[in-house]
Design brief:
The structure is a homodimer. Chain A is an all-alpha fold. Chain A contains eleven helices and no strands. Helices cover about 55% and strands about 0% of the residues of chain A. The first copy, chain A, binds a DNA duplex through loops.
DNA sequence: ACCTGAACACCGTTCAAGT
DNA sequence: ACCTGAACACCGTTCAAGT
């Protein structure tokens, strides 16, 4: 039962389970060193800056030596997505709603600081020690609300998804691809769109664009927008808690 | 004002604005043909199956000829993410809540059918004709609720994000990377996790895992889970509408 | 047992040359 | 003006050989 349902090798290593190597020279590296180097490269040059050769050079080793520690580059990206997360905020003594808000904001901030996470995260299930610590803390914060474990997990995944979406939208507004074309903010986004939208085919949207939906001072990136959607979710959670008879 | 705030070239082409070419031989291709070929490849072999050479071969042209129509592979992916969306459901005569639910589900279904969208979508702002048609229809469905344009856009982006998250989670449960390791469903996911979780460091989560959170009959992929989070959101929207004094 | 260096198959993109 | 073919710089990954 222990051997049958084993985790993927990278995940095992992310949890510190290095294979017990006995004979021969001692390893010069471990997964944490490699992951840290890769994260530094990604922070500096984006995901395109992460090549096996580049990571290897940074830890002072030949490119091919990395394959002693990971099976593939994909595995490396999986480990990066977990390791980039800092420790979650401490839920001790906090009311659930305040903690969930802080938790979600902190998770979004990770992605604003490390935009490359957006390019790997969504398809990777959170099985590493860091991401699961976040999950554990959120579950703790919901003690006393009457929500069961399954509901808590669902709340966590919904909030994680929201953080991801918000970060992606915020990032898109400043996307270099659009700056290249002379569009630098929400303001120009709307103006450019107006040129192309047929009012007959897109009646509501083109009216909204002419009305200036995308021309707000800060537009998409506005903190108000983050709170808007977040409170939508938290209101929903609050209703559920009320139904379960938990305390607010 | 028309020239200054121009859209990126790909986006212009997505809107059918092919450059007016006069002299010389007529083009053999257009962006739609190229995009359709790329989508077929991605559906068949995943995003890894989409190479410039492969797409070119499928439309019967040398690899380098594609650069007459797009500036880079990234542009091609942008066009694919828009073109893969079918027409949105028709909102005519539907109550807002029912339409939003159908809209969100349909959007998630796109990603379940074309999982490769998950690997490009989150960083690409929706500026193509298809994605913006979806936005227009959702805005139409909210007529009479009292929500303003900005709020409607925020609702749309939040629901889109939710659809994306749900699809990603559902997809992760069946991720080949985990099947490779002998983990085929939610059941094994939980068992594998139990081996590695330290109950002292992860008290709530390890209790939940022992309690079988991840061992439900269908687990993550359950339709119940999709509706759970969706209703959280729609309850939030409903509260907002009530505050605005709109009709349900 | 760990690491290296050479090698392989493949990739996106450029550019000059053809029509 | 469109398309081709050769070429370039780079990539992830393998494998035999060294210690």
């Amino acid at each position: 039962m222990d051997q049958d349902r084993s985790l993927p090798p990278v995940v095992e290593r992310m949890w510190g389970r290095e294979p017990a190597s006995r004979r021969g020279p001692r390893p010069r590296l471990d997964l944490a060193m490699i992951t840290a180097a890769a994260i530094e490269l990604a922070d500096a040059d984006g995901i395109a800056g992460v090549s096996m050769a580049g990571v290897a050079a940074r830890v002072g080793v030949a490119a091919t030596a990395l394959y002693r520690y990971i099976d593939s580059k994909e595995d490396l990206l999986t480990a990066m997505a977990d390791a980039v997360a800092p420790l979650p905020p401490d839920p001790a003594g906090q009311p659930w709603r305040g903690y969930l808000a802080a938790w979600t904001r902190a998770q979004r901030d990770i992605m604003l600081e490390h935009p490359w996470v957006l390019t790997i995260s969504p398809l990777v299930p959170p099985m590493g020690p860091r991401r699961l610590l976040w999950l554990d803390r959120l579950m703790a914060a919901l003690d006393g609300t009457g929500l069961d474990d399954g509901e808590r997990v669902n709340v966590a995944s919904t909030l994680t998804g929201y953080a991801l979406t918000d970060a992606a939208v915020a990032f898109a507004a400043g996307d270099p691809a659009y700056e290249k074309a002379g569009i630098s903010g929400a303001d120009d986004f709307g103006a450019a769109l107006a040129d192309v939208l047929d009012p007959e085919a897109y009646p509501h949207l083109s009216a909204a664009v002419r009305g200036g939906v995308f021309s707000g001072a800060v537009g998409w990136v506005d903190d108000e927008d983050f709170l808007f959607g977040l409170n939508l979710l938290l209101d929903g959670v609050e209703q559920l808690i009320a139904r379960r008879g938990g305390v607010g």
